[in-house]
């Protein structure tokens, strides 16, 4: 499996992942919800495909033929609480989203060239944590690295935070895992976390 097609079911491996409790706290997630998220099984189902974009202002990258955008639809389930749905379109445009865990947020998804890692003027070039430990196939992906952001919709939530992520694969003790590197910040604090997932099979029909 590579980032060319991430369709499948994945379960968070808590043994080798970093805690995200501080991030959830800064996002304003209630204590009892954080505790459930911190201990229960967390599953993500991803459907990776190409199709039209809902936003009429979306434009395809110059090097892309055709008129279809890359999409990853993600359903996240945590034992004991309701699931959340997040449908990402790789247009590079901000899109509003809201769910009961994080409230109103503005999300963005796009592919970025791996060469950004060596360019200090880019997000990848600035933050070493987003650069490290990726497999060769992640760095060599034809369409680039998967880069996503989620930011608080401050006028609606009265909170100010941003979570930048790079998605890909890394090897730990000889085993290849799907991984998300999270660089999270508020005006007063920065937190990083690595979320490591076990692939368990196709998304159940």
Automatic annotation (TrEMBL):
InterPro entries: Pericyclase_pydY-like (IPR053037). This is Uncharacterized protein.
